[in-house]
Amino acid sequence: MEDNGYRKRKKLRQNGVVRPLLTDLYQITMAYAYWKSGKKKDHAVFDLFFRQNPFQGEFTIFAGLEECLKFLENFHYSESDIVYLRETLPSTIESEFFDYLKNLTAKDVTVHAIEEGSVVFPRVPLLRVQGPLIIVQLLETTLLTLINFASLMATNAARYRIAAGKQVSLLEFGLRRAQGPDGGLSASRYAYVGGFDGTSNVLAGKLFNIPVRGTHAHSYITSFTGTHDLHTKMLAHRVTGEEHDMLELCQQWRKELAKHLETLTEEASDGELAALIAFAIAFPDGFMVLVDTYDVKSGSDVKSNGGPTKFHGSRNSEPHMHWPLQRSGLLNFCAVAMALNNLGYKALGIRIDSGDLAYLSNKARETFQLVSEKYDLPWFAKLTIVASNDINEETILSLNEQGHKIDCFGIGTHLVTCQRQPALGCVYKMVEINGQPRIKLSQEVAKVTMPGCKSAYRLFGANGHALIDLLQRSVENPPQVGEKVLCRHPFEESKRAYVIPTRVEELFKVYWENGKICQTLPTLEGIRDRVQTSLKTLRQDHKRNLNPTPYKVAVSDELYNFIHDLWLQNAPIGELF
Fold it and tell me: Which regions span the lipid bilayer (predicted)?
């Protein structure tokens, strides 16, 4: 089915919620008004674009194209849809209109689009949708909802990947905090597209072939009150199959390790030890566990006593904040890990979900290195340290400055809800009707649309980086490598520059025409790879977190004059009294 990141064509499975009625009512009322006024044969062109990059950044990742194509492929009003519309719309609507809707498909629509996973910028259309006015109007809301969140989510994930760096793994843990089941699935999918390595969302793993990851919750640890809760204590050696008493082996190791880790076995929780032993017996090849459940100094559960569950501060924090990890969790983990080693297994690592993550990750790494050197186990020093706990982009950047030793971040709320900016703000604007250009004027220049059918190109400099995106009228000849191109700001006359590109990339491809998808669509892995490849074409200053350099989007000299001539034709002339 799949080859080099691309899939063979077959009818794509569509989200059952995405159907023609997933729209705003005014799309249907406009459709009737068009129909009633005899505009069934009118032909229109719409641009779908956004006006500002999200998260105070200077780039956006385009995502959601495949879902748009699925929607077009399956566009059809069902019998029940027609029944509902007859009951809901005013009784004055003619019956023939519902017959018209019943037979309506997207076969006469043509969609030009930028490749999914590409880095994109404000004002450059992501989609150019053209076809009969009524059908292309009816597509508006659904296309916007499919692209807005997908692109926002992929961009958010890409920013986390840039902040974390290439060597650190990123896991999406946000299903429980997402905006409903559909939001959770979309978040998992597009977090993976943006550069995350896996998800805790099992259904997303099944549907989208995303690696699934997870350990256990604090409730698992607290369900064990002592070693008497261990109903199974025996584990077979990985090679010989001989059964060994894990409780006895772990208690021996805990006693020995306590001397080297300068702690007391009495300060470690027996309930926690029992929970870890039980988990090790259940998953001897997958022993990755939480180690910060108990504050043994006060004898309480950190997660239930208002402990420091959202603290990421400096190493000068209060010592009591580190008791759970230093006195109980690490000791118990190392004891069980060494017992597993005796039986031919290798532990995977730990997860820290509270406290000073920079300090605790360093403390954990020091402990692992100490055990590694003491018992000549090189792999022990490289055990994985996973950190979670309400992490956002700024948290990761701060931890980088503090010199953390974290191998993997589990990120939920801030990622999947895009708390820093909850919407991208894509719009869908008519730019041509029956071959005549259309412009929307506004006192806010940012809201003035660029009329007519346009082509888009990305021009590259000698160093291989993208220099500028150029919009032209579709009737113009494309820019050529090695030839001087005049690039103009669309609305500020004095802002202009010549560019001599070393490479020119045409951004639009025809993805939908004559009722079918006409490009080979990439797999999710292919889109994910495209994101990273596309981001590499940008200079680092465009991608940095603080005060990034704006990327330039320009228009050709011909398009500039076309816009301003049309503007003058449509702008009212005032009177002075």
Answer: none
- Which of 346-369 are b and which e, b meaning 16 or more Cβ less than 10 Å from the residue's Cβ? ebbbbbbbbbbbbbbbbbbbebbe
pLDDT tens digits along 329-351:
999 999 999 999 999 999 999 99
pLDDT in the model for residue 257: 96
Task: Name residue 504's beta-bridge partners.
Answer: 459
The three-class DSSP label of residue 404 is coil
Q: Compute the distance between CA of residue 122 and CA of residue 426 in angstroms, rounded to an integer.
A: 9
Residue 111, CA distances (Å) to 14, 20, 75, 523 in order: 18, 17, 14, 20
Instruction: Please state, in angstroms and rounded to a whole number, the distance separating the CA atoms of residues 82 and 21.
Output: 10
Task: Look up residue 367 and give its two tokens.
Answer: 């402990």
Q: Which residue has the tokens 């605790």?
A: 360
- Euclidean distance between CA atoms 470 and 59, whole angstroms: 16
What torsion do the CA atoms of 104, 108, 114, 120 make, to the nearest 10 degrees?
Answer: -50
Which pLDDT tens digit goes with each residue over 165-214? 999 999 999 999 999 999 999 999 999 999 999 999 999 999 999 999 99
Structure tokens at 178: 């997402």
Q: Position of tokens 């994910």?
A: 528
- DSSP codes, 158-209: HHHHHHH-SSSEEEE--GGGSSHHHHHHHHHHHHHHHT--EES-HHHHHHH-
Residue 140's alpha-carbon distances to 20, 61, 120, 134, in angstroms, are: 10, 20, 20, 11
Q: What is the pLDDT of residues 251-289, one digit of tens each?
A: 999 999 999 998 888 889 999 999 999 999 999 999 999
